[in-house]
Amino acid sequence: MSSDPVHQSVMNASRQFPKMVAGIGRLTTQMIEAVPGLYMKDGAEAVEVASMPDGRTLVFKVSDGSLRPFRVLVHAGLKKLGIDSPYEAENVLGGSTVIGSIRATF
């Protein structure tokens, strides 16, 4: 966790204006809005970082570049860090029937 005033200014601006970080309707924006103090940023090829002001941080990379498991991974990772976050199940469909779900295992 950086105490540099410039870094803190950027993080605070990101938390105040999450739509400028990721855009309308994006998971990163939704999570910054839903979890007080959270900073998140996604990157190229399915990389995500989520960090709280006290230094608790979650970083992951989805090897195949898919964004589909992000919501599940973010929720499970934050829960492991003791941080409550909104959750929506990510269903696996077989045709139009739900046949399973994506889950995170740590």
Detailed description of the structure:
The chain contains four helices and five strands. It is α+β, with helices and mostly antiparallel strands and 106 residues long. It has one domain (5-102). It has a three-stranded antiparallel β-sheet. It has a two-stranded antiparallel sheet with strand order 4-5. Strand 2 (47-51) and strand 3 (57-61) form a beta hairpin. The longest helix has 12 residues, at 5-16.
In short:
By secondary structure, this protein is of the alpha+beta class. The chain contains 4 helices and 5 strands. Strand 4 and strand 5 (97-102) form a beta hairpin.
What features would you highlight for this structure?
5 strands, two-stranded antiparallel sheet, 4 helices, three-stranded antiparallel sheet
How many DSSP H or I helices?
Answer: 4
Order of helices and strands: HHHEEEHEE
Uncertain regions spanning at least 5 consecutive residues = none
Radius of gyration: 15 Å
- Give me the side-by-side strand order of the main sheet: 1-2-3
Q: Give the end-to-end Cα distance, rounded to a whole number of Å.
A: 24 Å
Q: What integer is the average pLDDT?
A: 92
Number of domains: 1
Overall 3D shape = elongated
Q: Approximately what portion of the residues adopt beta-strand conformation?
A: 15-25%
DSSP summary, beta strand count: 5
Helix share of residues?
25-40%
How would you characterize the largest beta sheet?
3 strands, antiparallel
Secondary-structure class: alpha+beta
